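Help! Submission page says 'invalid entity' but I think these are all valid:
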Amino acid sequence: MQAENRFLNPSRRTLLVSAGLGVVGVITAGTPKIARADGAITLPKRVADILEQNVGKGEYFFGALWMELPIIAESGLSVPVTLRVEAEMTEADHVRRMMVFAPENPEATIADYIMGPRAGKAEISTRLRMAKTQTIYAVALMANGQRWATSVPLQVTYGACVDEVDNFHAAEFLKRQRVRGLD
Amino acid sequence: MANVEPRIAVPETASKGDIIEIRTLINHVMNNGYNYDREGVVIPRWIINTFFVTYNGVEVFRSNLQPGTAENPYLSFFTRATESGTLEFTWLDDDGSVYKGSRSIAVT
């Protein structure tokens, strides 16, 4: 999927640095060094602390959780995100809770979503507010105790959390937002 | 808050066992408590902090929103159509207001 492909591609910065140093030869892929050999994710301290307080200690693994984000957000005011877990959503195997984190925001937790086997499909979409360019993290807690996590880097052209509010421009931007069937 | 109008999209009919998509949007400024106005005065936090949905009285989805959720919070999620009845949507505001909406669904 999109998120994975972006991990596999060398980042623009890697290429620029390589060019600047005159390095010829193999350019290492821009894979963030968060996935350990056993597949567990090392979460940023801020996110790990919040999780430890709310759901207790535990390891989080790459695997069943997917997160879709745009590559570049023109405005941090409203960034669409979709979270999806590949789960049967039966009594034995369902998602209990999903959480989204933006570690560089003034408040790292964005929201948590609590569901059960009645959901039928573990997928939610919402819109985030982003202060600046950063890597977004998501985790999913399963009924059987499994913990999944994933991360996607996101470029934000114009941050939205700690600025002077230009009410005119904010209103204009939000007016242009349309949701199919909800207008 | 004046003129808050929840917008909810639920299919009117469904077959028993179908997984249906529910989409909601509510007008709200969601001031996160970090922005400031032209005079440099911080605009206090004022958000919708909780959203939950019941299907014939049984809770099927809940979300605890934080200031990182965008203005006019939009949420889409899924549920299984089990029986005909009513889905009730509730949003709780920081200032104590409660916004409600409901949609009925016919399950065949």
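Support: the input was valid. A stray whitespace character was the problem, and the output above is from the cleaned input. Chain A has a mean pLDDT of 77.
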